[in-house]
Structures are given as C-alpha cells and as structure tokens.
Amino acid sequence: MHQQTSSKSLLIISTFGMLVAFTAWAAFSPLINQFGQTYNLSATEQSILVAIPVLLGSVMRIPLGILTEKYGGRKMYTALLLFLVLPLLATGFANSYLTLLICALFLGMAGTAFAISMTFVSKWTPKEKQGTALGINAMGNAGTAIAAFLLPTIALMWGVEWVFWGLILPVLIMAAVIWFFTPETPSAGTNRTVKGELSILKYKDTWVLSLFYFVTFGLFVAMGIYLPTLLINVYDLSAVDAGMRAAGFVLLATFVRPVGGYLADKYDPGKMMSQLFAGIVVCAAVIAPAVGNIFIFTAASLLLAVLSGMGSGVVFKMVPSIFAKSTGAATGIVGAAGGLGGFFPPIMLGVIRDLTGAYTIAFILLAVVSLVCFSFNKMEYDKKTVTVPKSERAGAEQRSETIR
C-alpha cells in the first residue's frame, strides 16, 4: 500500500518537475524574434540559437539515464534542477550572440529531465501500467507550451532578462519538493559499469526504437521550438500569436501522449506504430506543396501533433518492456535520439529557408524518413511478439515475450 501511494505521488511530482524543466529548456524559442531583431540574426543563426539547447539536453540523456539507474532518481533530479539556476542566471546578463549560444547550450541540460523522470517513474510502476504512467509523466513536455504561452508576454512587460531570472524560483521550488517529498529509487545494480549499461547498443531493438523516437518525439520538439519562427516567417504573425499557435500544437501532442501509452497497454503497439507512421507520411506529403496555405498547414500540423504525441507514448511503452533490466540506459539512449530528432530539423529548416526561400523540401524529407520507419516497423514489430535481448532475459532460456 505504501509503494502504491508513493508511486502515485511520485508520478505527480515527477511530471511537474519535468514541466518546469521543459519550460526552461524551451525558453529561447518563443523569444527568438526579439533576439533576432536585437542582434540582426539570419534565419540560420536564429535556428541554431533555438536548436542549441536541444543538443546538450539530448546527448546528456544517456549518462543521466545511467546515473539515475545507478544512484537514484531523487538525487539526480534534485541535482539537475539546482544546476539549471546557473545558466538561467547567466542568460539574463548575456549581451552578445556568442554569449547567448553558450548559455543556451548549458540550459539544454534541462532536457535531461526526461531521462531522469522516465527512469524514476518506471522503477515505481508495475509493468502492465507502465505505458499509461510513462505517458502521463511525459505530459511534462507541456512545459514547451507554457514557454510559448507565457514567456513572450513576460518579455514584453518586464524585459527578456526577467524571463530567465523569473524561472529560477519555480526551478528551486521543484528541487525542494523532489528532495523532501519523493522516495528514492531502489538501486537496480550499482555494480554495473557504464560499459555494461551501454552494451544494449549491440542490439537491433535499441537502434530501431531510437529511430522511431527520433521521428516521433523529434517531430514534437522540432515543431514545438521552431513553429513560432516558421509562422512568423511564412505568415507574418506576431510573436505572441505565433507562440499561442505553437503552444496549441505542443499541448495537443502532450495530452494525447498518455492516450498512446494507454492504448499500447491494451493493444498491439507494433500495429499501432505502423498506423501512426503511415499517418505522418500522409500529413508531411500534404503540407510539402501547401506550406503557404495557413488553413491546410494548420489542419495537417494539428494531425501531426496527434500522431507524434501518440507515437512517442507507444515507443516508451515498448522501451521498458524490452529492456526491463537496463531501463535507465535504454531510456537515455532512445531519449537522446528523440532529442537529436528535435535538434537537427530546426537548423535544417533555417538553412533550407535561407537557400530556397521556402520550407517545402523539409516536409518532403519528413515524409521520406517516416516511410523508412514504417518499413522497419512492418519488419520488426508489426506482429504479436518481439524477441527480448539476451541480456534482458529473466533466465538463461531464450524466449519471446509479448510487449503487451
């Protein structure tokens, strides 16, 4: 009974912790118009500034996931939030494009909250409920929407520096709440080395699931952080209007993610992934020739939000099911792939915009990559059983285990 109560409160606290961290992680995106005007930035320079926090937040998910497995979610979560105070404080004093890039890079550590939080929650959740619980936990991604909704207004009222200084207080509050009100994760084997944890890289499942998350979560992150820029460039919207629309995309994707996890608990996640990737291919193919039409773009983008959100939920039902003994490492690796999926597209969008004056080629590439994922899923997971990697088997006997 105690564990059940603890797991429920931990899920709530962990989700709010990710919410705060992701608000900080996405803080540069809705302010990019102001930064662009202040420092006379090109589309490519703006896209780099928007994407740079995603880089460190993605790559560092791997060691942070492993360290969470080794030392516990409570310690790692608290340490991360306390660290974020430094780049938030420094960004408020930044006075050049280079300084902003450095601050944005270190603020990217906020993105590692995903690997810590997902590992933390999965260790306290029964296997048959992990899809639902991890889907709910991932609603902390809504911090991206909060950033888009609130930060432009705060910047207009009190100045850009107070956007970052103002985030310090909620970050410190969540650090205290996590430290004092969550149980520590039971160690899953502190004698395991980093090399041993990373041994899951030799399994095909690791790479295929990483590719899937690269597309599903990467699409969510890329659209969430670059959509304001795209809307301003193509449709000449104000920063506040563009931020509100981008926030709508993020909220929709965030709130359908638990639906994807819940359905993956009940039905065959492999078949679900085939349907979701097919939908992404169609939406990207529709947007590509019609980027200039705001009505077609809006409708197709909202459907992309649903597909990417549900897809992310389904992938993270599959991760702890396949890698039950190395959840931290697998979460870090797959999560890093998803983060990188949000890093490269914004830069690519900016470069394509500078070179061609439009975004058509970017959505054609999205359709092609999603079609590749659809093909891989048909071969690997669109069936009733999956092969569990040898290192993850409960016993020496080789067996197949149903994801469900």
Automatic annotation (TrEMBL):
Protein's membrane topology: Multi-pass membrane protein
Keyword annotations: Membrane, Nitrate assimilation, Transmembrane, Transmembrane helix, Transport
Ranges where the Major facilitator superfamily (MFS) profile domain occurs: 10-385
Record-linked CDD domains: MFS_NRT2_like (cd17341)
MF annotations from Gene Ontology: nitrate transmembrane transporter activity
InterPro entries assigned: MFS, MFS_dom, MFS_trans_sf, NO3_transporter
GO biological process, one term: nitrate assimilation
GO cellular component: plasma membrane
Compartments, record wording: Cell membrane
The keyword Transmembrane helix is annotated on this UniProt entry: yes
Transmembrane segments annotated in the record for this chain: 9-28, 48-64, 76-93, 99-121, 133-156, 162-182, 207-226, 246-264, 276-296, 302-319, 331-352, 358-376
Family assignment from sequence similarity: Belongs to the major facilitator superfamily. Nitrate/nitrite porter (TC 2.A.1.8) family.
Protein name in the entry: MFS transporter, NNP family, nitrate/nitrite transporter
Organism listed in the record: Alkalicoccus daliensis
